[in-house]
Amino acid sequence: MTAATAQPALPPIRARRVLPGFTLSLGTTLLYLTLIVLIPVIALILKGVEMGPERFWRIVSSPRAVAAFQITLTAAAIATLFNAIYGLLMAWVLVRYDFWGKRLLDALMDVPFALPTAVAGLSLTALFSANGWFGAVLHPLGVPVVYTLLGIAVAMAFTSVPFVVRTVQPVLEDMDPALEQAAVTLGARPWTVFTRVVFPAILPAWLAGCTTAFARSLGEFGAIVFIAGNLPFRTEIAALLAFIRLEEFDYNGAAAIALVLLGFALVLLLVSNLLQFWASRHREAVR
User: How many domains does the chain have?
Assistant: First the structure.
């Protein structure tokens, strides 16, 4: 074919986008983010600034507030420790084994996401009360759950366990089986394979899931108020104390407590995002 008869090169066909252009899409998402997230958070921060550091510290350092923070953090730590172990085991079972009812069990892991927290709190209270299915066994053994710190931890664990499972599960699914097979070929025992090959690969995702679960536990309210009994200095959590201050029209007190919880949440979310970034870099390095 000669140069005279050569057809001119056609311009590349641009891929059609289902959504509008970048500017409109970004502007819409930023607008909703501002209205739903940023404005309420900024309003809360401004309320804290308005009361001044001295009054803010006097509110958050009062004996009742300190006790509420201690109860919340302690129960959240217990729930996260349980979820760290149980969530890892559940993710392992769902990924590594095939059995009858596996799909149902996998779907049940999302029930705490879909179930209203008030319904969860009522159900847990009924189960762990003195005449409940579990409470009838635990109470004679001297292990009361309802109206105790343990009950708060149980409610927190129930609502936050999916965060660990759903964070670890996809990482386990994406792992290359050749790594474990190579370790077995070299004579490694199953526990050695897990501790030296599998666990280091899922560690960033596992830590991120635990951090998110801890943050979720700190903010839980509906599932706890029914099972905790809400006794000041014993089972009163920080979120409930903020709610009580609102009912008393003490807006500064509610804002101060909410700001402390917001600070905890922001720090934990920052840690979670850093761990997820580390996890993505780790997976890229392995590949």
Answer: 1
16, part of any domain: no
- Measured CA to CA, the distance from residue 255 to residue 264 in angstroms comes to 14
Q: Is residue 26 part of a domain?
A: no
Determine the average pLDDT of the residues in 275-279. 70
Residues of the domain holding 279:
63-286
C-alpha span between 55 and 253 (Å, rounded) = 9
The single-letter code of the amino acid at 40 is P
DSSP state of 52: -
End-to-end CA distance of the chain: 46
pLDDT digits (tens, 9 = 90+) for 215-232: 889 888 888 888 888 888
Non-local CB neighbours of 151 within 8 Å, separated by 6+ positions: 124, 125, 128, 145, 227, 228, 229, 235
CATH of the domain at 220: 1.10.3720.10
Instruction: Tell whether 58 is covered by a domain.
Output: no
Given a contact cutoff of 8 angstroms between Cβ atoms, the answer to whether 51 and 255 are in contact is yes
User: Could you give the CA distance from residue 5 to residue 13 in angstroms, rounded to a whole number?
Assistant: 23
Q: Is residue 8 part of a domain?
A: no
Residue 145 banded pLDDT, cuts 50, 70, 90 = confident
- Calpha distance 128→81 (Å, rounded): 20
Q: How buried is residue 155: exposed, middle or buried, by Cβ count under 10 Å (0-12/13-18/19+)?
A: buried
